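Attaching the record inline, Q. Sequence:
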Amino acid sequence: MADVIQGEVLSFDAVKGYGFIAPMDDGPDVFLHVNDIVGDRSQVRPGVIVEYVAEEGAKGPKAAEVRALGDETDVRRLRAQAVDPVAVRDDRPDGEVDVLSPREFEATVTELLLRAEPTLTGTQIVHLRTRLGAMARGFGWVED
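Structure, as predicted:
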């Protein structure tokens, strides 16, 4: 499986159908073509953070499977609030789980949803978080 890279859209001309992405790892800018955007193309505009798979194009680095995550401010805020959803803790006795505060739970679920499906709308995320929160409280995973 190819590595997924994050970057910020530097430019994108919807009429011409191309633009450029600055990778978060400070590598060279990557060419972006409209046909490589997955999901809502209108979300891809300068300042938006995207995930993509890097390929070698005819004229240099090229982005494929491009998915918009949101603007840089939103993504950084979510990361600062979120507990790493994939971290595994081995120091708990069998059967014990961490109990999260409602804020920790919301931030973690939001980050998971955005990673799994970046095209979800805010309304969809709120709906899913509410349903998951009710279930989590029922299992005692979230403080009341």
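Residues 122-139 form the longest helix (18 residues). DSSP finds three helices and five strands in the chain.

More tomorrow.
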